[in-house]
Design brief:
- The complex is a heterodimer of chains A (111) and B (115).
- Chain A is built from no helices and eleven strands.
- Chain A has 111 residues and is an all-beta fold.
- In chain A, the strands form two sheets. In chain A, strands 2, 4, 5, 9, 10 and 11 form a six-stranded mixed β-sheet that branches.
- Chain A is globular, with a radius of gyration of 13 Å.
- In chain A, 0% of the residues lie in helices and 55% in strands.
- In chain B, 0% of the residues lie in helices and 50% in strands.
- In chain B, the strands form two sheets. In chain B, strands 2, 4, 5, 6, 9, 10 and 11 form a seven-stranded mixed β-sheet that branches.
- In chain B, strand 7 and strand 8 form a beta hairpin.
- Classes of the chains: A mainly beta (111), B mainly beta (115).
- Chains A and B meet through strand 4, strand 5 and strand 10 of A and strand 4, strand 5 and strand 10 of B.
Chain lengths: 111, 115
């Protein structure tokens, strides 16, 4: 089955800095890659996603890149703010939506 | 707000007991997936229901079972609870059409504690 590795497990940045979270996947058939933000006591919230026919997608301060050849994808957050502090999960899935999640990155943005 | 609601939000059960967790999917969605999230871990896929039938299952024993109803709401049942079943249980709903999937939206989860 699919295996998703996520790094780093913890990321600490100063407000205004950029943050990058990286994931790799094992199954070349995976074609959908969502990113979720989970705040304490809440369920994961979809923040951005990318499909395998696209190399990059951007939504305001958040961008995701996908390298199908290397089987890795990354989340980029620019101009970080304290409210960006949360746990971020990457995931990969094939066809119908049964994603495999990474283990999460705890992002801490210091004011 | 995702439109996916789960109940109850918190639950304490004794080892060996049975538990039923409920999920109301987002309007227009036909698929519900259940996940178990242990503390400090990513969500682990339990199973998915599509149009009232199980459509995929993760590496969980048969004492984890589920149902999906005609209105696409869903239940997760766990029998013979073990201490390791303590976790946040998440459901996610999505609209799946033949050959394609869409993004899934999660509920807030049910925190289950087994003592």
């Amino acid at each position: 089955g699919e295996n998703v590795e996520q790094h780093p497990s913890t990321l600490s940045v100063q407000e205004g800095d950029s943050a990058v979270i990286k994931c790799t996947y094992s199954d070349s058939a995976s074609n959908y890659f969502p990113w979720y933000k989970q705040e304490l006591g809440k369920g994961p919230q979809l923040i951005i996603d990318i499909r395998s026919n696209v190399g990059e997608k951007k939504d305001q301060r958040i961008a995701v890149t996908l390298n199908k050849t290397a089987k890795h994808f990354s989340l980029h957050i620019t101009e970080t703010q304290p409210e960006d502090s949360a746990v971020y999960f990457c995931a990969a899935s094939i066809g119908s939506y049964i994603p495999t999640f990474g283990r999460g990155t705890s992002l801490i943005v210091h004011p | 707000e995702t439109g996916v609601t789960q109940s109850p939000t918190h639950l304490i059960k004794t080892r060996g007991q049975q538990v039923t967790l409920r999920c109301s999917s987002q309007s227009g969605h036909n698929t519900v997936s259940w996940y178990q999230q242990a503390l400090g871990q990513g969500p682990q896929f339990i199973f998915q229901y599509y149009r009232e039938e199980e459509n995929g299952r993760g590496n969980f024993p048969p004492r984890f079972s589920g149902l999906q109803f005609p209105n696409y709401s869903s239940e997760l049942n766990v029998n013979a609870l073990e201490l390791d079943d303590s976790a946040l249980y998440l459901c996610a709903s999505s609209l799946v059409r033949t050959g394609a999937g869409t993004e899934a939206f999660f509920g807030q989860g049910t925190r289950l504690t087994v003592v």
